[in-house]
Write a structure and sequence with these properties.
heterodimer; A: 109 residues; mainly alpha; 3 helices; 76% helix; 0% strand; elongated; B: 165 residues; globular
Chain lengths: 109, 165
């Protein structure tokens, strides 16, 4: 399988996430689009790790394993980020009674 | 076109289609459900590349834990289609054009990248198995692994402190 297919698939998913962040006004959906972008990057990291494995397997039996461990750590950070971020969104909803990000751009409130 | 290619194109179409539906769904609950479909498709890609550990962890952590958290928050806030405020059509158009421009620029830049023509083996190789990953994680990456436990502890404390008042 050529690596370009995975590059283009990841670019497509990442750009859909970018467009979602720019288009949507709902804070929770914006947050979900950020998760989508993280997943696109994870997919590309795994594809590159497999590519390096194919290239360096003759000298090093675990060539390219670092890419998959980075994906593991990205997942760890994403889980922590989601728990704190959703707590902040719930707190803002309690104060402002809205999750519209146009209401949340004024820090003085 | 063999079975692996067909599976690749099917999973890619599923991932991109449901990702677009995440963005254009009016109801946030439908967005969450389509995002779960996207994560299943990406897990299918991981398993196709024989990264079995990451495929299962993606299902358990993302589709299992994180999306259930999103779903709980959406239902707790009682959001529905008409809670989405009326938005400017020009802003939507500008967002779509900006995303499309980024897509165009990235594809044009990476079309003839240095990695062009390199391949990857599907369905073989053992670096994605839990045996090799566990060995590398607990020898070379043991310090980041322990630091991530502190990160989780602080995230848990932060979420409880923010949610409590």
């Amino acid at each position: 399988m050529p690596i370009e297919r995975y590059i283009f698939l990841s670019i497509a998913l990442f750009c859909i996430g970018i467009a979602g962040v720019l288009i949507r006004r709902n804070a929770i959906v914006v947050f979900m689009c950020i998760e989508l972008m993280l997943n696109a990057v994870n997919l590309l990291l795994v594809a590159f790790s497999k590519m390096h494995y194919l290239k360096g397997a003759s000298t090093n039996v675990t060539a390219g394993i670092d890419g998959q461990l980075f994906v593991f750590f990205i997942m760890v950070v994403a889980a922590a980020e989601v728990s704190v971020g959703l707590a902040i969104i719930v707190m803002m909803y309690r104060n402002v009674h809205s999750v519209d990000i146009n209401f949340l751009n004024r820090l003085k409130h | 076109m063999n079975g692996t290619d067909i599976l690749f194109y099917f999973l890619s179409a599923l991932a991109i289609g449901s990702a677009i539906l995440v963005v254009i769904s009016k109801n946030p609950v439908y967005s969450v459900l389509w995002l779960i479909v996207t994560f299943f498709a990406i897990s299918g890609h991981y398993i196709l590349m024989n990264a079995q550990f990451l495929g299962i962890v993606n299902l358990i952590v993302y589709a299992g834990a994180i999306m259930v958290l999103f779903l709980f928050v959406v239902m707790l806030m009682n959001l529905n289609a008409d809670s989405e405020p009326q938005k400017n059509k020009w802003i939507m158009l500008a967002g779509t054009v900006a995303g499309g421009c980024l897509l165009l620029v990235l594809v044009a830049a990476l079309k003839n990248a240095e990695v062009k023509g390199m391949g990857l083996e599907m369905k073989t190789g053992n670096i994605g198995l839990i045996n090799e990953l566990g060995k590398a994680l607990f020898t070379d990456y043991v310090v980041p692994f322990e630091i991530s436990s502190i990160l989780f502890l602080s995230a848990m404390v932060g979420a409880v402190v923010i949610g409590k008042k």
